[in-house]
Write a structure and sequence with these properties.
The chain has ten helices and 13 strands. It is an alpha/beta fold.
């Protein structure tokens, strides 16, 4: 344990951060910290954050916190700004003062989704809504404080510790005879468990800082994503009432408050080259997840 990196993971009750904690706990000296609502640290409280880190030894701060409800960000604008932009800046400043590094998570929503093709880290970011805007401000604040810090953009994260689109559509297909999903919005699913493996090299070796895209290989629409989940579950013997996902247009979802980018397919070439990792397809990762972790088991 003497030479292991000391890692503080914030937001450890969330889908992505909790997977990091589980995967890294035997590999590094991990301290997990939940968000304030779970009895942990309120990253919006600068005094509390600085006081906490004064008493902790660390080599890395991994920021898994964030206000990720896209529609809520449009109405709770000050809260979103504080959590998604100002808090990362404070964490980056704290790390710099201790000669430590930050690994901060961002999102594909920093892009407007207008251009076709794969999006590289160097492509211009132009968010459509306040969520993407605050996340972009956060990642820029982190990188401005030290080029050694790492910003990781992810998309459509699924994993075992918090319900995601995958879990929700499976649960609906077990109850209902018809399910639907958006057919004209495309991105790349990201396995939280896979992400833990891809990012571990940054903690183990002195890899370059910067912005990285991290998601599984390939891309799909929400409808295709959901259909693949149902096909996998059906092949595993799940007693699904719905076997088909019907497509609906994004514009038909009247409950959405915030604008959504329609095409945010991230290019992961940089991550694979720098970290020396190979990213399996989203279909392979989804098959593995549903077989092991989906929270609604098939009937006996």
């Amino acid at each position: 344990m003497e030479n292991q990196q000391r890692v503080v993971v914030l937001g450890a009750g969330g889908r992505l951060a909790r997977s990091l904690v589980e995967a890294w706990s035997g590999r590094f000296r991990v301290r997990s910290v939940r968000r304030s609502g779970d009895g942990g640290l309120d990253v919006a409280d600068e005094r509390a954050v600085r006081r906490f880190f004064e008493e902790v030894d660390f080599d890395w701060i991994v920021n898994g916190t964030g206000l990720t409800n896209v529609d809520r960000c449009e109405t709770a604008r000050d809260e979103a700004l504080q959590v998604n932009a100002r808090a990362p800046a404070i964490l980056a400043d704290i790390a710099c003062r201790r000669k430590a590094r930050v690994l901060h998570f961002s999102t594909d929503y920093v892009f407007d989704g207008i251009e076709a093709g794969l999006l590289k880290e160097s492509d211009a970011a132009s968010p459509l809504g306040w969520y993407g805007e605050t996340k972009l401000r956060g990642e820029r604040a982190v990188m401005q404080r030290d080029a050694r810090h790492v910003v990781v953009r992810v998309s459509w994260v699924f994993g075992p510790h918090k319900s995601s689109f995958v879990d929700q559509i499976l649960a609906r297909a077990l109850r209902e005879e018809r399910v639907e999903a958006i057919e004209d919005k495309w991105s790349s699913p990201t396995s939280a468990e896979d992400a833990a493996s891809w990012l571990a090299p940054f903690l183990e070796r002195d890899l370059p800082g910067g912005v990285y895209h991290a998601c599984n290989a390939g891309w799909c629409s929400w409808r295709e994503y959901g259909q693949e989940a149902l096909d996998i579950a059906a092949a595993l013997g799940w007693p699904l009432r719905a076997r088909r996902v019907d497509g609906i247009p994004l514009a038909s979802v009247r409950s959405f408050v915030a604008p959504r980018p329609v095409r945010t397919i991230l290019d992961t070439t940089k991550l694979q080259s720098v970290a020396g990792v190979t990213l399996r397809t989203w279909q392979e990762a989804l098959q593995d997840y549903i077989a092991r972790h989906a929270p609604v088991p098939p009937a006996a």
